Amino acid sequence: MLTNCMGMAFEEDKIMRVKIAKFEQDLQVLKLEADMDASSCREASRMEALRRMEITRGLNQAARDRSRAVRLEKMRWAVRDVRRNVIKRSRKDLQRFRELARAERPLEVKQTLSYEKRRDQERDEEAEVRQMERDARKERLAVREVYDAVVGPAASAAATAAASVARKAAIAAVRRGGGSGDSPADAADAENAAAIAAAAAAAAASTTGMAELGGGRVCRACGGPRFGRTVCAKCGANANSWRGEVDSGGEDEEDEDVV
């Protein structure tokens, strides 16, 4: 009896072990399926992220292309009657340079109907005009430097002498008018009159000298000529104090922006 029970117990134990192994195998299969589902979800999420990135990149590229197209269209149809271009069109030296550049235009370009060829030729002509303008500007600057080195000291000495003579004449005029010339009020009147006379003499001398050399402006502060771009060579005044122009076609591009 016991022997039969032990045999049945062993069989029951084997059956339970087989069932446990089968359950473990099924559990491993379920775990593998869960891992495969998770991997598929991660791959789908990565593909979705890549798709969104491509869509965003395409939209940004389209926005940049449209912005560039709009900018080019605005530049093509922009109003050209701005102050700098108006001044350039009114300058006779630039008109002469443009005529010289257009005189070298070949016959096939004159007879062509292609917009691109005409545009390329116009760009080449504008570049040639700018080069001619730079060369002419260098020549004018050389003349101004020569004036500053040679005529400038003589003009300053003449202005100083004129100021001294004007001061003495003003003091004499105050004394003739009944003043002693020694009181503070008489001295102030004499100094004011002398300063006005000296400034007028210096301005006249500087303007005459620059007119003889072909261009320049006169400083409001000291009446001296301008040789640099924005600062007086004599007193260092700012460009806003310049008045008058002797040569209408010999200024730099930076000077055209000064109001």
SSE topology sketch:
Elements: H1 2-76, H2 83-90, H3 92-103, H4 107-111, H5 115-176, H6 184-213, E1 218-219, E2 242-243
Antiparallel strand pairs: 1-2
Helix pairs in contact: 3-5, 5-6
Average residue pLDDT? 72
Low-confidence stretches: 207-216, 239-259
- How many domains make up the coordinates? 2
**Gyration radius, rounded:** 46 Å
Helix content estimate: over 70%
Strand elements, count: 2
Strand content: under 5%
Overall shape: it is elongated
User: What is the N-to-C succession of helices and strands?
Assistant: HHHHHHEE
Query: Which structural class should the secondary elements be placed in?
Result: mainly alpha
* Main β sheet profile: 2 strands, antiparallel
> What is the strand arrangement across the widest sheet?
1-2
| First-last Cα distance | 127 Å
**Helix segment tally:** 6
Key traits:
mainly alpha, two-stranded antiparallel ribbon, 6 helices, disordered C terminus
Summarize the structure.
By secondary structure, the protein is mainly α. It has 2 domains: 1-64; 107-257, no CATH class.
Could you walk me through the main structural features you see in this protein, from its secondary elements to its overall organization?
The protein is an all-alpha fold and 259 residues long. The protein folds into two domains: 1-64; 107-257, no CATH class. It has helices spanning 2-76, 83-90, 92-103, 107-111, 115-176, 184-213, and strands at residues 218-219, 242-243. α3 packs antiparallel against α5 (115-176) and α5 packs antiparallel against α6. It is elongated.
